[in-house]
Amino acid sequence: MTNEQQPISGVPGKFTALTYMTLASGIVNIISGLTLTGLVIIGTIGIGVLCAPITILPTILGVFEIVYAVKLMSNPPQPVRPSQTLAIFEICCIIFAGVIPVVVGILALVFYNDPEVQAYFNRINASS
After folding, report:
1. How many structural domains does the chain have?
2. pLDDT digit string, tens, across residues 100-121
3. Which of 29, 108, 120, 122 has the fewest CB atoms lying closer than 10 Å?
4. Structure pTM?
């Protein structure tokens, strides 16, 4: 293996937790967004289609979360930066009564500021 292809050892536990929490939050957001949109459309006998662009927003966030989590899970790791924007949007899911994404967003912001996680992000970005 060349230096670029060697996996980086010593993945911090908080990084791994962050990865799986982001993936779980993405799945929850996709399911809840599609359910919310479907219920609004069915409950208003089709008139709710006008509200679909608003109620589909958690689904779009869920797709971005899954893409980001897959990048974090890759072996060897892809160079990615901590996504504070994604964490803030997860916290904004409180508008859609999403408790899990809110908790994940808060924990993500806390974990991004952990020195061990920051050092790991610096290592995977330096190896690119």
Report:
1. 1
2. 999 999 999 999 999 999 999 9
3. 122
4. 0.84
